[in-house]
Queue: 4 jobs
Job 1
Amino acid sequence: MHTQAIFELGQEAERLLQLALQNLNTLKTTSFTTQHDTNYFGQSYSGTSIPSKFCPRGIQAQQAMLQNELRKITQHEMVLAIVGTVKAGKSTTINAIIGTEVLPNRNRPMTALPTLIRHTPGQREPVLHFPYVQPIDKLMTALQLRLQQTDRETLSKQLEIDRDMLGLLTRITEGESFAKHYLGAQPIFHCLKSLNDLVRLSKALDVAFPFSAYAAIEHVPVIEVEFVHLAGMNESHGQLTLLDTPGPNEAGQPHLQKMLQEQLAQASAVLAVMDYTQLKSVSDEDVRKAILGTGASVPLYVLVNKFDQKDRNGDDEEQVKALISSTLMKGVIEPEHVFPVSSMWGYLANRARHELALHGKLPDPDTQRWVQDFADAALGRRWQHGDLADSGIVRQAAEMLWEDSQFDEPIKMVLHAAHANASMYALRSACQKLLSYTQGAEDYLNFRSHGLQIASEQLQHNIAALEDDMRLAASSQQSANVVVQSNVKQAVSAMSDFIQRYEQQINANIQDYFQHGKVPEKLTRQALAFGTQRGYDFNAQDETLSFDDEESAQIALHRIRASCEIILTAAQEKMTEELTHLFSYLEIELADTLRSTLKPIEARVAQGLSQAGFRTNISLPVFHVGLLNFNANQAFNELIEEQDIPVAQLRRPAGMRGTVARWLNSDGWGWEGYTVMQSRYVIALQDVQLKLRQHVAHFLLQLNQSMAAQIEIAVSEGMMAFFADFAQALETIRVNLQQSLTARQQNEDAVSALRLQLQQCVRITRYIQEDTRMLRDDIQTLFTVEQL
């Protein structure tokens, strides 16, 4: 409908991108950017060090980023990057999004290299294209030579040689290279796992893997397949492509963090896959940091996988959305862009539906393992082969499993929207990247222009003063650490007192319960949340509860446990709320401490810090309901005691006397007393109360120790990051001043020419920025029209 408008907007975006690339080429030739790829200490920028965006390598990276945006808009391609840890179920999620198995699951990482998965209508069987295979071939040759010099037994001590690795070693020895095309899921799986094993083998043999050769997105492997969820839909004016990215530190490869950030920067949007059961794990935190590093230039969505593993004490859907949007992701994502799902259920359900649509039945479960998994999830673990014969029942079960997976909402809101508006997503991505470039370029160029107007002596004085500030910042870290540790100690002590106070309150409520035989009135509202009004569970005057059969005893104990869990759940909610406030206050206090420590330095270089984009942030552990799970079941184990007690009974005596009594049917005589042992099932209420108190004390002790350790670690890491960022900002300013001094020391004609060149670059940058903002507004207007 809006093809002409999209075409015209695309033409404008191309023009602005070309202009920005020309501007960067101009900057590359200036005397400012012909040097200084090292820091103040003569070290190259590598690892976690980030060079200036306008040093030679920085300009090259920005050019690559803009070239990628130019490629995407000319091809009308929207790239949706999928990022997540190995255990989060990223491959399963991608399979669920596509609707069929494209990335087979494996226990170890499967994404050694970024992989594009492109929706290709009509391509039912996936095909992988790997045209840029030359760097891998060179690696294979190098590994072949190294293997000739390496004993296999020695290698086995450094590397797990399983069947897959053994096959790869044979392949390298025989000189078999990678093909450029693979058709079908299994050949694709074989190719991808071999690439991943190559990473492991290269590390073991100390041969560099050519990751840098695949930094450009056009060089990575591409899988073409029709997305089942998009089959039959009206074709959009654009191309939708998923980008499967390596997880940070995946397979013990720390450099993948940098590769991940580079790939995310090239995406049109990001879909993060998080593990519901591990939302606060270190690995998920690495993913969050990489995503937050992209800033606001890339739209973000989150799938919280494994939501099917939620138990009744776990965070519900709304709590998960609030936790991620407001806390874990620091407010950079809206709650409506967070989707709790079960990727495995979504994948199995949709694959079953797809098979039924194509063949009218499911494959043999004995030959297709996924069918067994589907039957377990959809029909229950007691399913029989005959249950799969009725296609109507199987189809209904698949639909119910799909509904339970909660995958329908993200498919419609993310996948369908991305497919329908791929071109506009690509255009919007280009605008965001252009605006990011122009904002940084204008600050840089203004700094440079101002530097040319300052005398050399003043620049030298500024550099010397700044170097003094850098040394002062390093020494200030020690004094700040003393203050911070004092704050941490106070916070840990306050938390300990807080937990001890709550333990006393919990024990008081437990004692109240056992004194009266029912949940305290002040917790009645919480009890009603369980769906029933709770009365008396037992007579509080009794010390023990005695039953004739074990089943009755179990029912009584279950009632007591349910009431005790009401008490613990009420405490859990209050503790969560108050500890959240405690940690929030501590975070603010620590940030204030660090800022006040460096305030004198910051005041002297405030302008430079602003131009360098300096910012501070300390991320403390977040206390939420998922960390408070009392799970009191263990406290109620083995509390029913079986006792044998004597019971007096009457019986007819043997012999003539008993016979005569039976004849006369007499109840008054002819009986004799005797004793038998009978089983009784006894619950000692004092033992129940004692064991519950012990459980609460043990749980809160572990909680206190765990949270104290988390605070210590988080503050330590936050301190290091804070001062590293501050030092990097100062170093960037120092390099800029040094380059200004170098330029200022040229003859006046050269300085004048450079000044004119910079002024021209500033004008072009402002022009690009102004036109890009207008283009962004036009694209947003078109988005709004499309959604009406």
Job 2
Amino acid sequence: MPSPTSGTQAQTVAQFRALIWHSLDNGLLETALFTAERLVAFDIKNGDAVHLHALCLFRNGQYRQAEALTKRWIRHVGCAYIFAQCCLALGNKKEAAGIAALEECKRLWVPVTGWNNHTDTERKILPDAAAMHCMIGKLWAALGDTKKAVESYVAAVKVNPFLWEAFTGLCNTGVNLRVNNIFKPSPDMIEYCKVQPPMYVAEKPVLPTQLASENYQSDPFMSAQIRDRSDLAFNNHPSFFNRLNEGSTSHHLETPTAQTTGVGQGDMLGAANGMGDKTPPIRKTRAAAADLATRKLTSRSSRDPANELKRPVAVAPTTAEPSVPPAPARRSTRLNTLKFGSKLGASDRETRLASKERERDQKKRAASARLRSNLIGGMAGIGKDKEKDRVPEDVNVRGYPTSRHRSTSDNPSQNKRKEPPETSLTRDTKKQMPDVAKIQAPPAPSKPQYDKSREEALTFLLEMYKKMGNGYFGLTRYNCQDALQAFSSLPIAQRETPRIQCLIGKAYHEMAQYKEAEKLFANVRALDPARTEDMEVYSTILWHQRNDTQLSYLAQELMGIDRNAPESWCALGNCFSLQRDHDQALKCFKKATSLDPKLAYAFTLQGHEHVSNEEYDKALTAYRNAVSADNRHYNAWYGLGKVYEKMGKYEVAEKHFRTAAKINPTNNVLVCCVGVVLEKMKDYDAALVQYNNAVKLSPKSSLARFKKAKILMLLQKYDLALHELLILKDLSPNEATVHFSLGRLYKCIHDKPNAIKHLTIALNLDPKAGHLIKEVIENLDEDDSYSVEDSDVYRLLDGDQ
């Protein structure tokens, strides 16, 4: 197979790329990979071809192959980006190599944001600076360097506030944000709203000098009018004639009519210059060329009576056009004699040819004078004086020959053309010819105006993103009320989407309002039955509701949808956990973490099951893995604290509980856990502070008020304790522990009737603890003080799984 030329090679590469993008856009990955391999083999030294091949491999899930392919091309922006994506997907501390690759080609990044450069028919193949910063932020976050991740995410949202991944990554780091300052118009958006008015193109005559100057750079052979007419080598260049004869069309001569305003003068100029003639004349003189053009024009005018010089033909005059006198008849005679080799005698041939030449010259002079007079008469302000404007007979219409043959005069000096002296005609023509600069000068451009539709669209998008951003930021900071308020301000169509419904359900879940959360997730299942994302949260909500039937149904559905989804295995594990089958639950949770090592919640569920089996060492390992996957997963820190509390390491437990409370400062259960540990360390005053904070966070929390009442009774502040217990009785009227505590309190303040009353209610509510309650009733007459053991008979809901 012969090697292709440079032009063919470029077209072949373009065809390859078009086939690859067609396959990628239509999901035909096998075809895309096959074609990409052919492209790389065809153009092996091209980084763009390697980038397309690596992109096909990455989209097909072949991360290791894509990484190996792009490792040697990291100086190419596209290859470096694919390499970084592969490093992030593969993990195992390869993220540092991805960061180094992106930083090395930083000077080649596309600085202009591409948020408005992609349409249904156009795309920017290489990633822009915003995408690069976002990718670096992900890599730093995977390495655990929160500070550098924040810097990269901030740089990304500054360039493109619509980059949702960068915004959510920034929120997940835990840094404080001003969301309203992120979703606001950037300078690029303001420029995008500006509309440049269309340039006004005035109708102006196309002058020969203008035409020549415009074509001088693009096609030097078309600008012969501004060249030296003595350059015979140039005028007779084969490319020049090919350009005139092969590249032109005959439409100039098919429309001999012209407009006096100057529009269409370029076409008429081409016709007058013989641009439409594809048959070279036999004669070698300039006069013969002019004669041929004149005869064609007059013959067409005679065939079309309607166009027979009824309107003047307006063509811009050539002020600097040199006039070349016709060549002597002897020269043409000799040339014809040499060319055709006639058998006639020399004298007869010369006589006949001379007479024919004289007739042709006379006809040519008459036609040229008539044509030039009509041409000049068509211009504004010219032609008033017929006698003054008459064209001399020695003025040639043509400025250069159109023959393919070279002149073969014996005397080279005869080939040189002389510039004619300036006549009155040329002086008047120069004075009255239109000013080219004035004709070409367009009007001053008006100031760009705002496109209201673009501005309104951007305002709508930014406002919508701002609301969703405030909601997501509030949820990541566990300000659930603020998050719910932000989500509720969205349009109904946006609020009813599955993603937003899941976020609202998570907010209710964090607030322990499981009924509302269950309704929202059930709505998500109806909107998107094939969705597996966030379904592990839904399974946990059903676990708290003790709804084993619905939980079993959910687990079966998810396993039928996607057995390789970690959320499906989490739901199945929660189903086994609710049935007290902890071993099977552990197997399911381990399968989930094997599918997604970054799913911290699955590690946390493993830890809970190990605690149920009293395998504290394994539980610590599971919780630590969860913290490694996500150091802001407060459930894992809470689990560590509970394990250390059970092991009697209260100081270590307090540290982990405080870390969890710092991540989620709105969770009153975590604050109460800190108070419980302090209470067990006999630091009752510090414990009371924590319980007060918990009550402030959630005034309707039964757990917080019960813990506060108990510590007040230990401090013998019975009046304050009685106030808390009475409020708690209204909140939980059927809780046996509350009535038992009230009975003990009334016993301490020597209110025997009320003590018997509440102790009897507690006995009726919980007959299993009858022996303990009867013991207190029998000892009512004894003077006894309240102890910690009295409050540990029953345990309220404390947030444990």
Job 3
Amino acid sequence: MINRSGSQIREDFLRFFEGKGHRRVHSSSLVPANDPTLLFTNAGMNQFKDVFLGNEKRDYTRAVSSQKCVRAGGKHNDLENVGFTRRHHTFFEMLGNFSFGDYFKKDAIAYAWELLTSNHDHCFGIDPSRLYVTIFEGDAKVPRDDEAEKFWIEIGVPKERIFGMSAKDNFWQMGDTGPCGPCSEIFYDMGMGAAEEAGVDKPFPHDDQRYVEVWNLVFMQFDRSSDGTLTPLPKPSIDTGMGLERIAAVLQGVLSNFETDLFTPLIVRAEELTGHKVEPEHAVDERSRASLRIIADHARAATFLISDGVLPANEGRGYVLRKILRRGIRHGRLLGQEKPFMYEMVFAVRDEMQVAYPELKETAERVTKVVLAEEEQFARVLGQAERELDTAFYSARRDAQRPVILSNKPPVRVDLIELAITTVESNPGLTLEDVRKNHLPTLPDAYFEIASRAMREAKPILDGSAAFRIYETFGMPLDFMVDAARDAGIKFDHEGFEKAKEEEQQRARASWKGGSQKSAAPVYRELPKTEFEGYSTLRVDGAKVLALVKDGVGVPELKGGESGEVVLDATSFYADSGGQVGDQGWLYSGDHNLVVAEVSGATKPVQGVFAHRVRANHTIAVGDTVDTVVDGLVRAATTRNHTGTHLLHAALREVLGKHVKQAGSLNDATRLRFDFSHFTGVAEEELREVEEIVNRQVMGNTKVETLVDVPIDVAVNELGAMALFGEKYGEKVRVVKIGDFSTELCGGIHTGATGEIGVIKVVGEGSVSSGVRRVEAVSGTGALHEFRRDFDVARVVGAMLGSSGDGVTPAEALRARITVQEEEMKKLRRELDAVRMKAAASSMSDAASSAVEVKGVKVLAQRVDGVEKAQMRELVDSLRIKLGSGVVVLGAAVDGKVSLIVGVTKDLTSRVQAGKIVGQLAAQVGGKGGGRPDLAEAGGSDVGSLDAALKSAAEVVGGLLG
């Protein structure tokens, strides 16, 4: 066995199967194309799913790939195990060979054994005595896989090394229905050093750590129906999966995947960035080692996910990415690194993996900006999480103390006892005796005795569901919360936490079923493909109606006036795809004398099947023939906008930088909308430059070339075509080339030359989400309408402002006039505020003398209409100073709304709190509010009750003083 690098292993695997007639297929995106059943690409077969289902044909029957995969959410979730085991990862590479109805078990087994054990070129040369094989042992529905066992024995595997296993381990299925079959797994004996229990020699398969599965050969030979019946497939197929990280550990002679060269450079970089170097001989530092492994793994996952277009968010794929990033950041903090560091790991990932994934060279700069922004945001969120945890601790203590307080007879004032406890807990070093003597001297001694007993006897527990909410919402580490609870003398509800976590995982599994193709109604899945002829014509005669669908169910006919979908064997209608909306038009009768249905659009519910959305004018039945006629004017306007997006994409990259990548688009007859990766707003002068570049291309009337059936490797690597995020490409692609300015993979319909667009006018730019901007534009007649509108506005502005004669445009003149007026308005507002403040202060000059005294506390309540909240705060501060010690309550009516502010001098906050005062007053004016013990605010809607509320202020304060 030759020790080789991870990159060599990947290349050897691919070359071995190329030598066996397999087509090398590049890894697909981590975002599954046209498959809403998957959260992320999690296996090599994902990109071939439609081929296995029979919905897509390729010009090859054998394939080999190294597929990038992520398992960190939904059904497949390894996130919590990563870093603490030898072989769990969020991101990994799956090596696989595939047969689509070509070879089957015998050849698949022979190829696998040759690659693993032979010493020929590109083979691994593993000692066969360290390998074990499993087969399906059979069950009530499927017999034992004796055929596979026979082929393993023929290839040289001793019978005693072949083990039958249950369906749980050795029967694979794509989903609840569809292709399925038995499988054979190959295991490698890592030796006694890897044993679960040191020194304990357990036989295969009773030691999961020692015996490692390195390859799974899936034999797809049945089709499972909805009632569970298994029918032999007419063309059995092969799907295999070998984890690159695992086979690298085997071939490099290490026990953990993290000790291979796929990870060690990343771990070294993590040590440098966190400043925490772990010495191998320090066994006690295992937790730090785990943190470094987590950082290395999560840096790989985040880099590839963001490169493939996923951005941190609060739901879906973006939410999982956010969890991965924040878990990595947290472990950096555990190692002592408080500053952003994770974004630097992106460059380390790029340097290690750019040979196999050259796209990382282009995306790394953009990815680092996303990661840095998330690190900075997480730092802010952690502060909020700590405050939430403090609130949860407070609630836990009160929930535990209240039953002790309430057990006293006769009944007592719970709020006063809790005030005494809160005063102690919020002032470190303070005792109940201090509070009794210096802060609440009027409180009965019995209340302090009850408070002491409540604090002593209560057994507070941090509710598990509340802890999980903080964990899930803010990403606070579980061990951090457990340690903080212990330090606060609060028991942590582990059982409740795990229950809440399991409930969340069940919701996630329900949201992402994973597997069977359930997104389309069953009626579509059995239909042959529609022949699309719309690239070259707007009309197809004699198209046969294959199916009619109404409300998701197949029907024999649609009557006049009914709406539904029509599937034809041929069509000229383009279906929604690649951002271009489907065509509109008409279906004519076979003699072309009658419009039988009006078409409002078309979609592809299943790959290759075109469903036309129609409203029938006359009865149309399955088996009828119709002529398809596309509305040429709508098609022309749509294609102008589609070609415009290609020009806009190239121009944005020229002006803003090569990090710009399409993140979505919409092209219809009225406009074009283009989403792209960029971190700041596009300046007006940059938009103007983009617009000028685009229109120079339009005026140049450059020919728009469409190259058909280009091998995807040639398109991307030789022609430099851009592959767009979220799009699914086959092995042969269409390339749309606009001179030397733009080259993209695109299945849409375009103008013949750029001059047909007429002109492009950018009409808007804004933010879509973090790191994604949107530009909207119009072309052709749409741009003409926009220019006419702008001209009308300019004419009106010119009439208002007159002509300056110095070359100033109407827009510049209007902008200057508005700026001057805004400054005037600001100046007038400042003057008005000053007058109001002066008037209010003057009216309050002797207000302190009108304060009333309640139980030894001065209370001043005044109405100050017309004063803004900021000014009310200033007045409160001023009046508190004049009072020296006391409570200030100000109320104002502004625009039909009530504003209340309560201020309490610092010496009184242990006796009476501003938040409790304002809460009671706010209730009287139809509102609510809160704040700090010394300052609180509230709003309300009942202006008529404001005077009464202010008059009651003294009574409210007295009640709270007890």
Job 4
Amino acid sequence: MNRFLTSFLALTPFALAAESFPVAIQVDLAGDLGPVQPIWRFFGADEPNYATLPHGRKLLGDLGDLKPKSVYFRTHNLMTSGDGTPALKWGSTGMYGEDGRGRPIYDWEIVDGIFDTYLEKGVRPYVQIGFMPEALSAKPLPYRHHWTPRAQYDEIYTGWTYPPKDWAKWEELVYQWALHSKERYGEEEVLQWFWQTWNEPNIGYWRGTREEFFRLHDHAVAAVRRAIPGAKVGGPDVAGGPGGDFLESFLEHCIGGQNEATGDTGTPLDFISFHAKGWPETQDGHVRMGIANQLRDIDRAFAVIAKFPETRSLPIVIGESDPEGCAACQGENLAYRNGTMYSSYTAASFPRKLDLAQKHGVNLEGALTWAFEFEGENLFAGFRALSTGGINKPVLNVFRMFSKMTGHVLPTESDHDIALDSIVAHGVRKEPDVGVRASRDGDQVCVFLWHYHDDDLPGPSAAIELSLSGLSTHPGKVTHHFRVDETHSNAFTVWKALGSPQDPDASEMAELLAASELAEISSPSLQAGENGTGRLTLELPRQGVSLLVLDFSENP
């Protein structure tokens, strides 16, 4: 171990945790709860142009490697006017302008470069149709904002947030873009994409009325379907779960309202999208997460979708699903983002999203993590990101764990798994949440374990006794034990131990990159018992996440 890291760990509070507490976990290898649902495979960011820059390209490659051609990326500003220069909460493609006589000028070069990069890296577009080009905006000036992380959030809502001054030109722009995409990438490819109008139209991102948004959406969907008849279209990516009554009103419009573009009844709807965010705050000098806030958003939105027979079975994408709202903001309550608070929150929250879908009987297709990277910013600057300066954060390694779970879901039970109703109502404020999910794909079994608490404070480890039932005649063994914690899969800890360098030398960078990969630790021994049972034990520290991979083939 690096000498700096050794010194650092001697001082870190997680090295001083109290005695462990016992946790009993059971996995039934003979059970089958249906196929694994890879809802984790969606990501996104405000800044579209980062995708084509060096660290953005690297991170896209890491995301694409998780599940090639099944990972999706959603981004704002794909239609925003500008020269493609990125900034915080800003980006542009300049795809639309007009000549002196008001005739459209289309330019696809920048947006093509973005989508080309996605596809090269094994990632597909979740196409957000927005925002309003300057030449089409009903109130274009001021247009470009220059927001900083300490500025007022509403300063970003400038000319790009307004309805079009010409609805026919708006529809034609979307049609020409969709048609160009089909011609460039092929119909078979673009039929796999998600096409969705705007972002959070119930708050400042949209400065028109609700009815004007429905009209905007109708024209966008009509345009996409005119160019690509079988395209997957949906929305509304509303803020705050159901967004008051906005989601319900949108669904009613799509089901039986008058389509403002075609005059027909209803608007095509292939998937439903909304946003759900947590609410971290500082409490007695430490960060306290608000997982309950995020889960309540999801719970309420699912309830609305389940009300309508026409929408109950439609795929749902939680189009932004995060511990809080602003990826490019900074602050004391956001100090969780660099280390294991973020990774353990992610591990604990994703299974509960699926649990809520099961509760309401709805079809959860994806939960999109609104976090990418911020090119050219300081290392570990406190942004909500998966990577910093090309160095992946611990949270990305949780997604690497998720990607290894394939096949079918196995029945599991933990005596320290906080009940769904309790975590939705209260979060994790008393006893820690030590949970489990497991999958089986042929002879390979994956057991995913997490140890989470809302309070970013040290605490005792969980002494886990894992009992397996339904073993085959082959005894099997643990072939891999992947771990994310304070000292594994954690470049942030190493960076601090190196003295927090903002310009690491070659040796330091190599060490940081190595620490950013998914780490393996020694595997516990599987002890076979009678009647197809087995057991193993392991210690899981607070904010730790483990993935055990077991092999039950004849010669593991």
